[in-house]
Amino acid sequence: MLNASPFIQAGLLLVGYFVFTLFCYRKVIVTKFQNHKQRHAKTLIAYASESGSGEQLARELHVKLKSQGDPAICISLNQVTEQQLKQADTLLIIASTYGEGEAPDNGRHFLGKLDTFKSTLAHLNYAVLALGDKAYGQYCQFGLMLNQALQCKHCTPLFKPILVDKLDENSIHEWYSNLLSKGLLEEAVPRSTLSSTQLPIQHFKLTGRQQVNLNSPGAPLFEINLAVPSDLTWQAGDIARLHIENTVREYSIASVPQEQSLKLLVREQKHPTGELGLGSGWLCHHADLDSTQAFSIRANPKFNPLDEHKKLILIGNGSGLAGLRGHLKHRELKQHHENWLLYGERCAEHDLPWHLELTEWFNAKHLTEIDLAFSRQTADSNIRVGRCHSGYVQDALLAQQAKLKDWVNNGAAIFICGSLQGMAKDVESMLLDILGQPVLSRLERQGLYRKDVY
Fold first, then answer.
1. Residue-level pLDDT at 184
2. Residue 409, CA distances (Å) to 221, 387, 438, 443 in order
3. Least crowded by CB within 10 Å, which of 55, 156, 300, 316?
4. 3-class SS at 132?
5. What pTM, to 2 d.p., does this model score?
6. Ordered structural domains, the chain, with CATH
7. Residue 172: in which H helix or E strand, if any?
8. Which residue intervals define the domain FAD-binding FR-type in the entry (predicted)?
9. Three-class SS state of 383
């Protein structure tokens, strides 16, 4: 009589091997399944979001559609392909405009790609929710440009673009009401749920204020410290929002929650009349120490840390060092030590914010490379580490282009924080010259090229 035990054991081994193989290839299988769904989705939600609010609204709409059985997908505008538009019958766009009519980074390539699409897309219905701020001249300009470009492709608007001033709740409610009237939503969205886009305001005690660039030829720069509740959380790259006189001023956070303090680096601003700027004047001069200040924390996913351990190139100028310092502190706690800082300021003698800490990080091999660029005076005995360059931070990049290529070829990410006009645009132009458009576009698609500029 045959013994069944060997057959049972063999069967168990085969089952175990099959389960192990599925486990090993689970990411590939999930990715292929998701790609299949994306290619065949009939409703496409696409967002272009600078601060994260547009993405939040898009994902909330995605949840609502999926809950009523619509297999919609939600992706950034840059990720939208011609094939997806050919397969879809409805395109819902939530697009922010920042600065003077500019597109957010995760949407800025879409219009150029759309021009290359050979299909007329006459079958496609679409709607645009355009987010902006009436304080700027080119109010909601990017959303309006998207609307015009889609009409040129013979797409059919479901309704006129809805323009939203500073996340106005009434305008967002109008968006949902129009989607309901067109049959895309099965139920009305209560107004109470719309307040989720408004961030909770908390009160932090101002515990410290110190100018870090005494005698600088540039405007004063202040380190601001605020005590925060022990249970308050945020990520490196997130934004502190000061609420003052019914307005909001935003600042890059320089610290991490483990430090139990909210650290900012604030440049004093002045109007042409000589009057101090509202936010900087208050934090740098007028607010009393130990007084409480109204703040909220805004998530900034486009500038949050990488999920994995990679080399990191950090580029910035002026108060942009705040956002870069937050990432350096985060990576110190994670023991991710392959970091390269390129930082630009005016004067080597007086413009060295947090140089002692940077020196300590360099000596501890947490910062493996430091390049400092000064547009005026470049030599000073206070500089203890790093290479000094005459000019701007993009000039330091040019001088170190061989090293830059080597780091990028070895998987490094590039994070930029600082002024949009001047620094950020000139740095990107230099990166394009050194690395080329294909490489920079690949880094952006992979989430390895991130910016927080203002």
1. 94
2. 36, 22, 13, 11
3. 156
4. strand
5. 0.79
6. 35-197 (3.40.50.360), 202-298 (2.40.30.10), 304-453 (3.40.50.80)
7. helix 169-181
8. 199-306
9. coil
